[in-house]
């Protein structure tokens, strides 16, 4: 079972509108879309990936429509 933390973020209204549309079009929740995008962005951060091995473990938790890709060295 994965561990979740509830948080509050201040996000631009236009970004939230876009997230809602993407979630609706993909038949997913906004949380699933935001999580997918955050994981994808974090996987592209080379310095974080070198220091934080648990991020690579988290990447396998999310099941998306397509591969999120890998970081090229």
Give a verbal description of the structure.
With 73 residues, this protein is an all-alpha fold. It has a domain of 47 residues. The model has no long low-confidence stretch (mean pLDDT 79). It contains four helices and no strands. Helix content is 56%, strand content 0%.
Briefly summarize what is shown:
The chain is an all-alpha fold. The chain has helices spanning 13-26, 30-43, 46-51, 53-59.
Layout of helices and strands, plus pairs?
Elements: H1 13-26, H2 30-43, H3 46-51, H4 53-59
- The low-pLDDT segments are none
Q: Which percent bin holds the helix content? A: 55-70%
Query: Which structural class is indicated by helix and strand composition?
Result: mainly alpha
Number of helices in the DSSP assignment: 4
Average predicted local confidence, pLDDT? 79
List keywords for this structure.
single chain, 73 residues, mainly alpha, elongated
């Amino acid at each position: 079972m994965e561990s979740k933390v509830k948080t509050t973020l201040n996000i631009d209204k236009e970004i939230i509108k876009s997230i809602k549309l993407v979630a609706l079009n993909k038949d997913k929740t906004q949380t699933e879309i935001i999580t997918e995008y955050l994981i994808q962005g974090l996987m592209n951060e080379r310095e974080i990936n070198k220091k934080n091995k648990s991020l690579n473990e988290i990447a396998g938790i999310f099941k998306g429509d397509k591969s999120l890709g890998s970081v090229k060295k």
